[in-house]
Design goal:
- By secondary structure, the protein is an alpha/beta fold.
- The protein has one domain: 3-Layer(aba) Sandwich (Rossmann fold), CATH 3.40.50.720.
- The protein has eight helices and seven strands; from the N terminus they run E-H-E-H-E-H-E-H-E-H-E-H-H-H-E.
- It has a seven-stranded parallel sheet, with helices on both faces.
- Helix 1 crosses helix 8 and helix 3 packs parallel to helix 4.
- The radius of gyration is 17 Å and the shape is globular.
- The protein starts with 10 loop residues before the first strand and ends in a 7-residue tail after the last strand.
- The structure holds NADP nicotinamide-adenine-dinucleotide phosphate (NAP).
- NADP nicotinamide-adenine-dinucleotide phosphate (NAP) binds next to helix 1.
Length: 254
């Protein structure tokens, strides 16, 4: 008998929810009945995604926010609480990769900006929503990391370093919040066909080299990452915390 995963009436906050993996997660959560706030910098893109996802059982609330700006994160948390209620599920998904090249050529400013968005953003947002989860002794935080946080990404070292930090944030927070009934997990996708990684998968040489490392010879679509988030967010994963769920077609299993 198939187990249907439902999130009826739950409130989810998904950063970077306007496109790519974040939008696929928002779609699967709203299909499962969760009300989803989707947050990113561009209001227009969010409105368009909200229109596309309208009509599903869960409501979609677009909220513009730059995750690298603490005051905008505060406004985001307030606005979601006021309009949808307390957050049950936080998906820290927005990220940036502005340093492509040898590690010794990366600048302090690039490193600081990437840490601010990829690591401090998730930490700050967790600080804003986790206390209410602790009070209710219920909640799920899911950080979208990357297999680049598990092994170095060639000429993407700062990105790898921020994702490795995000994985340790996940485990550290899981350890502290577990006794309070809040679960914290991470998903580590391999290469997924989105705007973010188009410089990799649109390049035939890189794409073929990457595919050769995978056990499944296809590139992932965002919709193939979303079910991992749906599962981790649900009651079916009630005994899973501090976990890194790798979704990479076997790329790191060798
Ligand atoms: N694609 C891959 O191959 C891959 C592999 C492993 C892990 N990941 C991870 O998956 C996550 C989602 O990436 P994706 O591939 O879905 O990328 P994407 O399609 O480019 O989407 C990124 C989303 O993040 C938002 N965003 C970017 N900077 C932001 C900021 N400063 N503040 C708020 N929102 C911001 C973007 O919207 P705005 O432009 O409107 O802000 C967009 O909605 C990231 O954490 C990425 O590291 C991706």
């Amino acid at each position: 008998m198939p187990v249907e995963i439902r999130l009826d009436g739950k409130v989810a906050l998904i950063t970077g929810g306007g496109r790519g993996i974040g939008k696929a997660i928002a779609r699967s959560f709203a299909e499962a009945g969760a009300h989803c706030a989707i947050a990113s910098r561009k209001a227009e893109a969010l409105e368009e995604a909200a229109r596309e996802l309208a009509g599903l059982p869960g409501r979609i609330l677009p909220v513009p926010c730059h995750v690298g700006r603490p005051e905008e994160l505060e406004k985001l948390a307030d606005s979601v609480q006021r309009q949808l209620g307390p957050v049950d599920i936080l998906i820290n998904n927005a990220a940036t990769n502005i340093q492509l090249g040898p590690i010794l050529e990366g600048t302090d400013a690039q490193f600081a900006k990437m840490m601010e968005i990829n690591v401090l953003g998730p930490l700050r947002l967790s600080r804003l929503v986790a206390p209410a989860m602790v009070q209710r002794r219920s909640g799920s935080i899911i950080n979208i990391a990357s297999i680049s946080g598990l092994r170095p990404q060639h000429h993407g070292s700062f990105y790898s370093m921020t994702k490795a930090a995000l994985l340790m944030l996940t485990r550290s927070l899981a350890e502290e919040l577990g006794p309070c009934g809040v679960r914290v997990n991470a998903i580590a996708p391999g290469l997924v066909q989105t705007d973010f990684s188009s410089y990799l998968w649109q390049n035939q040489v890189i794409r073929d080299r990457y595919l050769a490392t995978q056990m499944l010879s296809q590139l992932a679509a965002p919709a193939q990452i979303a079910p991992a988030a749906l599962f981790l967010a649900s009651d079916q994963a009630s005994f899973i915390t501090g976990h890194i769920l790798v979704v990479d077609g076997g790329a790191t299993a060798h």
